[in-house]
Each structure stands twice: as C-alpha cells, then as structure tokens.
Amino acid sequence: MTFAWYGHLKFFHGWSLPLTIFLSWGIALFEYILMVPANRIGYNEEGYSTFQLKILQEIITISVFILFASLVLKEKIKWNHAVSFLLILAAVGFAFYDKTHS
Question: Record's InterPro entries (predicted)?
Fold first, then answer.
C-alpha cells in the first residue's frame, strides 16, 4: 500500500494523474487481497478484536512506510518522527494488553 500511495512521487513523474491513480489502485488491490482474509482469520479464528486488528495494521503500515521513506525516497527520520513511532508502538502494546492478561 505504501508504494501505491507514495511510489509515484519518485517513479512516475511524467504520468497523467488518472493513469497514476489507476496504477496505484492496481497495486493496492494486491494488498487488499491479502488483508481481507488476514483480518477474517485474525477476527474469527484468533480472537482479535477489530480495534486490535486495525492498530496492528497501522503499525505494520508505518513500519513499512519508514523503511520506504528512508531507503527509497531518501528522507531523513527526525526526532519527532521517532518519538511519534515509539508512541504508536506503545499504543499497540496498550491495545493488546487485555489479550495478554486475560
């Protein structure tokens, strides 16, 4: 999803906006094909709440984004970005607290 949303900023400069949107949707479709069954398994078979599934998805997305922005887009992580990421990690731990202590 990260590449679908941000890859065009580096790789598809000369493309029209409609073509870029179409390509991005095609890339995003692949992630949806993986995420929908993963959410169903997590919810129905593993007992995660929808809140837990969402926050887990966010931490995965942000982790991938940090790597993408750093390695592909060559952006530097500033201290406030690092602190924000740590707070999100804390939120994940807090969201799963009841699952580990039940």
Answer: DUF486
* Per-residue tokens: 30: 């692949």
Number of domains in the chain: 1
Q: Is 48 helix (H, G, I), strand (E, B) or coil?
A: coil
Amino acid at 48: Y
Find out whether 25 and 92 touch, Cβ atoms under 8 Å: no
Q: pLDDT tens-digit profile of 25-80? A: 888 898 889 889 999 999 999 999 898 898 888 888 889 999 999 999 999 999 99
For residues 50, 88, 27, 43, the Cα torsion angle rounded to the nearest 10 degrees is -20
Write down the pTM of the prediction: 0.74
Taking the C-alpha atoms of residue 5 and residue 50, their distance in angstroms, rounded to an integer, is 24
Ramachandran quadrant class, 74 (left: phi over 0; alpha: psi -120 to 50; beta: rest) = left
